[in-house]
Write a structure and sequence with these properties.
This protein is of the alpha+beta class and 348 residues long. Helix content is 32%, strand content 31%.
Length: 348
């Protein structure tokens, strides 16, 4: 009788599996600010919100070269990509001169739009990056004290709420100071694992900023999305402006975001498939697993190939890299392992 109830329960679940419809999608843009002085009626408000929302979405998930391709998209075409919108009650006095709008784009239409324009987007949602900017000024090294970039990285003029990446900074410690001083004649040889606590699940980046009023050089070294990063950048300021740290910081953050995007590209023209064994410890584990899959925007669809009262064998169609899917599933409370050429999962 107990097994019969279990089978009936599973059959109900199986009847609901299929195409994933994600309410909170990467293609959702929240809190679009529209100045009340820029429109006269609701139609004008919505038109402005559509244009700003489309630009905000693309600046967040597209590489710069692709962002430029779609920047001139007409309002008519943008409207065709929108599923629905929501005018939000503004409760923040600081922004009382703005109307706030949430915008929801249709995933399938966005896929078609990007495919037609030969564009791949990036999923950097929920991305955190451990970072340590080290300032080199007139052959002197500044790590924590008198380091504008360490002190002001999160307090620059940019709206912190618009940050795509969550930055994490290591606390000041003697070991880091000693490591950098020991390698002060060749900072590029520093082992990043000596700076950050070793954690393969976390991205980390050491940034050496060799400051000059006209030509500032950067050396970046670390790991992003399981790939080692070593990169040199240069910022040229022809204005000869003194104390142009804020302009340099904006440039640096923009370049780092571009690097992160490059490592998280989603090729919608090349879907992949994942077969996974889900351990069933409780009667509703498969139901909970289904809800998790429905919440992950990168998953196109899934189906249960086989099941009993101990496990379910699930086939998942998804976009992007396997590490990204693993990261998303882990964030949702799944314990994922790869053993004997087989992916297995269980709910924590």
């Amino acid at each position: 009788m107990k097994n019969l109830k279990f089978i009936i329960f599973i059959l109900i679940i199986l009847s609901k599996t299929g195409t994933v419809l994600c309410d909170e999608s990467i293609f959702t843009v929240n809190n679009i600010q529209v100045n009340k002085n820029t429109f006269k009626n609701k139609d004008e408000l919505i038109n402005l919100a559509f244009q700003k929302g489309f630009e905000k979405l693309n600046s967040k998930i597209l590489l710069q070269e692709d962002y430029i391709k779609v920047k001139s998209t007409s309002l008519r075409n943008i409207k065709n990509l929108v599923s629905h919108y929501q005018i939000v009650k503004n409760q923040d006095i600081e922004f009382d001169k703005y109307e706030l709008v949430n915008l929801y784009f249709k995933r399938d239409k966005m896929y078609n739009f990007y495919s037609q324009n030969n564009i791949k987007y990036s999923d950097v949602s929920g991305k955190t990056l451990k970072i340590l900017p080290v300032l080199v000024l007139k052959n002197k090294i500044f790590i924590y004290d008198n380091n504008y970039f360490y002190k002001n990285w999160l307090d620059s003029s940019e709206d912190r709420k618009s940050e795509v990446i969550e930055y994490i900074f290591p606390l000041e410690n003697i070991e880091t100071i000693e490591t950098i001083k020991k390698n002060q004649n060749d900072l590029e040889m520093i082992n990043v694992n000596d700076i950050f606590e070793k954690d393969i699940e976390k991205d980390s980046l050491l940034v050496i900023i060799d400051y000059d009023t006209q030509k500032t050089k950067f050396f970046l070294k670390g790991v992003i999305s399981s790939k080692k990063i070593i990169k040199n950048l240069t910022y040229i300021d022809k204005s000869n402006e003194k104390n142009n740290y804020n302009k340099i910081l904006k440039f640096l953050k923009k370049e780092i975001l571009e690097i992160v995007k490059e490592q998280n590209i989603i090729d919608i023209g090349a879907p992949a498939f994942l077969n996974i064994n889900l351990s069933l410890k409780k009667q509703n584990d498969l139901f909970l697993f289904q809800n998790i899959l429905n919440e992950i925007d990168l998953i196109e669809n899934y189906n249960v190939r086989e099941f009993n009262n101990e496990f379910a064998y699930v086939n998942i169609k998804y976009y992007g890299k396997i590490n990204k899917i693993k990261e998303k599933l882990t964030e949702k409370g799944l314990n994922i392992k790869f053993i004997n050429n087989q992916w297995s999962a269980r709910l924590n």
